[in-house]
Design brief:
This protein is an alpha/beta fold. The protein is built from eleven helices and six strands. The N and C termini lie far apart (44 Å).
């Protein structure tokens, strides 16, 4: 991938990026992304929120609202978002109910934009509810699930999906290519500006160097980089459909 020229310094630029981690993670998981965005000239706010304690709407208001207000008070020209997994659904929830006048672009890594079959299969289990909290139970694939009730994107968003799994048990439950948590197909969102697939598992998307470079490229241009000597994004399936079928037939 071509090396992008540095942006102006944060003082000159006044573009802010709000980072939102995924379910059962903390802001530490976004450290690599935070460092790269800061080095590229953005002012970065890496938000830590208690993802297991409340429903998605409550989490989104409490995690996003105060930070957006802080950015606006500081004179932000643009407020961008970069999210991992559940963080993307929080942004969708917030923007469905609140307008941000200086909203920039949004990049979502591994978002369950149409839910996850893992939640369909395991969401009723006591241990799942204990580990993932109320928000985790909202992420099924049914029409009534929170992601499927939020509607299409009415903002500029790019989605980065992974197609490598290190969790073969979850992958058995997910049709098609997946990252061990969500299928490539279900990361897609109606109205999105762009979508790419990279060879990375769900937990590692947020510190994958290709994902980080593509995130910066999208924030600058509104599109991901393709062709012209750059990286080719060819899906490689670690846990193939044939292997899934074979495993299921042996049970």
């Amino acid at each position: 991938m071509a090396i992008l020229p540095p942006l102006a310094t944060p003082t000159e630029n006044q573009e802010y990026v709000i980072l939102l981690h995924g379910l059962c993670r903390t802001s530490r998981s976004m450290a690599s992304m935070e460092q790269a965005l800061s080095a590229s000239g953005y002012r970065v706010l890496n938000v830590d929120y208690p993802s297991r304690t409340a429903a998605i709407e409550k989490l989104s208001d409490e995690a996003i609202g105060p930070v957006v207000a802080d950015c606006q008070k500081a004179g932000a020209l643009k407020i961008h978002f970069v999210t991992h997994s559940l963080g993307g659904i929080l942004v969708r929830s917030y923007l469905s109910r609140h307008a941000i006048s200086n909203l920039g672009r949004v990049v979502m890594l591994g978002p369950p934009n149409q839910g996850s079959e893992v939640v369909d299969q395991l969401g009723a289990w006591w241990v799942f509810k204990k580990l993932n909290g109320p928000a985790g139970s909202e992420l099924g694939t049914g029409k009534a699930s929170t992601p499927n009730q939020l509607g299409p994107a009415k903002f500029c968003v790019g989605v980065i999906a992974g197609d490598r799994s290190i969790n073969w048990i979850n992958s058995v439950l997910i049709p098609g290519r997946d990252d061990g948590k969500v299928s490539v197909r279900r990361t897609k969102l109606e109205g999105m500006a762009d979508h790419i697939v990279i060879h990375a598992a769900h937990p590692f998307l947020l510190r994958n160097q290709t994902a980080i470079q593509q995130t910066i490229h999208f924030l600058r241009t509104g599109r991901f980089e393709r062709g012209g000597g750059g990286l080719r994004f060819q899906p490689v399936e670690l846990f193939s459909a044939a292997r899934k079928s074979s495993f299921i037939n042996r049970k």
